[in-house]
Amino acid sequence: MDKIACDLLCTARTMLTPHHALLTLRADEPLPKVSPGQFANVRVAGSPATFLRRPVSIHDYDGAATVQLLVHAVGDGTRRLCELQVGERLDCVLPLGRGFTLPDTPLRALLVGGGVGVAPLYLLGVELVRRGCDVTFLLGGKTEADILRREAFEAVGRVCLTTEDGSAGTRGFVTHSPAMGERYDFIYTCGPKPMMQAVGRAARQSGTPCEVSLENMMACGLGACLCCVEKTTTGNRCVCTDGPVFNTQELIL
After folding, report:
1. In contact, 228 and 237? CB cutoff 8 Å
2. Measuring CA to CA, how many Å separate 222 from each of 54, 225, 229?
3. Which among 3, 11, 184, 191 has most CB atoms closer than 10 A?
4. What's the whole-model pTM score?
5. Could you report the per-residue pLDDT of 7-37, keeping only the tens digit for each?
6. Cα(143)–Cα(165) distance, integer angstroms
7. The pLDDT of residue 111
8. How many CA atoms lie within 13 A of 191 on its CB side?
9. Nearest partner of 157 among 189, 111, 191, 203, judged by Cα
10. Delimiting residues of CATH 3.40.50.80 domain(s) in the chain
11. Domain 4-96, what fold?
12. Distance (Å, whole) CA 136 – CA 178
């Protein structure tokens, strides 16, 4: 699959919370086709403590030269990314990795995200709807403030919420939502590892195909450094190249 290294121009930055930024980035020329679930490997300038690139899921793509990245500030590198100003450029390699499996015929899909794990699910939902699918988003967080871009997801499909404190939607974890008890043809999920493991186990019990987007630490993004290796039922696999999306049948849950 084609990928390029380029300096993307920041054309907009929206702070969704004090710790989450939505960056709109435009290339000078058309980008290679982006598949939902792929990511960009980003070089962080102005952060002496950040030596390696940071992998960031591609949140949206206009089909031409513009992408959006949803960034959670958790360290020096991601904090600097969240501070990116309009007019600045970001050194990126993209699109990388293997994305979600897209159906050839319409199906009923559940997309489960927790925290910033919702990032790759937006573009996935848009593409599934374009293919005639019935899409339900199940978004979880500790509080209502942790539910990111709720209105954008509502514009794409049905949205169900869970919060640990009960401030929005069902109180508890995503697996406590009534939406998890409904029947689907396919389940996709991304978020904290315990959440994805729980969703994957629930999918196995119901016999529903399920794919997860792993968030292992990555450095090169090209399968050379081996720091993102995941143990699977078929041996060790590089998440950055063999994934980040895996079918739960491949994973040890």
Report:
1. no
2. 13, 8, 12
3. 191
4. 0.96
5. 999 999 999 999 999 999 999 999 999 999 9
6. 6
7. 98
8. 27
9. 111
10. 108-250
11. Elongation Factor Tu (Ef-tu); domain 3 (2.40.30)
12. 12
